[in-house]
Amino acid sequence: MPKILATYLYAMPVFVNVALPVPRADVFTYVLPDDAASVLPGSRVLVPLGRRTITGTIVGVGVAGRDDARQVLEVLDDNPSFPPNVIALTRRIADYYMCSWGEVLNAALPSGLTPSSVVRIKLLRIVSDADLDAIAQRAPKRAALLSALREHAGDVSVAYLQKKLRSTIVGDQLLALQSDGWIDIRNSVEGEARTRTQRVYTIAPALVQNDDLLRETLDVLDKRAPKQSLLLGILYIAHVRNEGAMPRSTLLTEEGASASALEGLVNKGLATFEDVELDYDSDGNPRDYSGGLRGPASAQRSTLAPRNEAGLPLTDEQQAAVDAIVNGSGVFLLEGVTGSGKTLVYQRAIAATLAANKRALVLVPEIALTPQLGDRFKRVFGDEVAMIHSRLGISERARTWKRIRDGEARVVLGARSAVFSPLQNVGIIIVDEEHEPSYKQDDPAPRYHGRDAAVLRASIEGCTIVLGSATPSLESIHNVRIGRYQLLRLTHRADHAVMPVVRTVDLRE
């Protein structure tokens, strides 16, 4: 190939379609920067939209170009946030519930993965009372804005000023103040989850390589700086026991330790430190660098599942249900009376799915049920379980999402939005208490039903789905009657528990 032609082909712009979280059916076309030409569909990008900067998702690469296409500002993902199956699911949901594709993709991402631009205002000079009085005579709204800004040492968002002044019309006044040199208006990208770190310390290598130097140093510190001597001894013991670096928070809990003593060791070259990313357990609780749970989370571990249910015997009805699910396909409605052991059926079906090297998705209707059911599942499946719910912090939710996307979790459990989890190679989907109205999202868009979205995802994945309930919804009963769903029944309580006696009483008598 001639060199000139090769250079021309290399420089050809790559256009992409981006779905944005705005109420518009069409996608937007942008051009990729030269250093991001290999991006894949499902990747998040920051793009300009009018005067804003907004997060969108690439849904098409190598599309027809446009003369007015603006450039992608930044590609946020090294690997796509959405696998192809989830992209297909969000497209179908957008069509069915008549909303934009970008709105569905935005709802599918946990907060912390959707950064956007925020307009922030900062005072450039001191505002005196005399200045306010003078401005108030000719422009009272500008004076009110300056008064609100004067109350803060740093910058504030436009949204804060609108709330403070109980007015959404502040743009013209802000521009006037900027032109007069009172304020600075700038855009900043905010909202992305930040990696949480902690500082860890180790003893200086020179001390562990020379026993005489270590003893001499400890003797000097014992006389002149006993707190430093204490901390240095702790660091040395951690090194001898191969415990690795010690977290700052752990060191400062020692009696007699202090932050100044720790800094003194570093300044003297007797200890070194580094900032490391926090590790998390499957609940999203941060661990110590040494592996232990930090803070109150460790004291709040659930005790709802005192035993591992993996070895419990199944009743004949339970075993029949498990066999039908494992050996069958399609949609199953598991109708089981309260206490009949539907969760055991779920666990055995999931175990068979994992044994076949596939993954499982479990939906529950309420956040309150997630820790309870999650604890039972983790007793059986261990750290392979990842839980997604709104009680997790922004960073924890984003981290859990990435853990699922990277294939580190094989069982995902959460409320309705977990149906969008970037789980690949799904072998079974469980929808517990499928009749619950809380599976329906009313506002904002997409106004989808979690159970129906799960059935749709199972169709896209080509996997089995189980809808469990003691009181199935009318829609599911109808689907059983027309042959669309297969019915499985658990009519007896487990452990030989007796059903309650129900009587009809005529209150007129």
Structural features, described:
The protein is α/β, with parallel strands linked by helices. It is built from 18 helices and 19 strands. Helix 16 links the parallel strand 15 and strand 16. The longest helix is centred in the middle third of the chain and has 15 residues. The radius of gyration is 30 Å and the shape is globular. The N terminus is likely disordered.
> What would the average pLDDT be, to the nearest integer?
82
> How many strands in all?
19
User: Strand order of the main beta sheet, please?
Assistant: 15-16-14-17-18-13-19
Task: Please indicate the percent range of residues in DSSP E strands (runs of 2 or more).
Answer: 15-25%
The geometry reads as: globular
Task: State the low-pLDDT regions, or none.
Answer: 3-9, 289-304
Spatial separation of the terminal alpha carbons: 99 Å
Assembly level: single chain
Question: Can you give the helix content as a percent range?
Answer: 25-40%
Number of helices: 18
Largest beta-sheet details: 7 strands, parallel
As a whole number of angstroms, the C-alpha radius of gyration is 30 Å
* Helix vs. strand class: alpha/beta
In a few lines, what is going on in this structure?
The chain has about 500 residues and is of the alpha/beta class. Helices cover about 35% and strands about 20% of the residues.
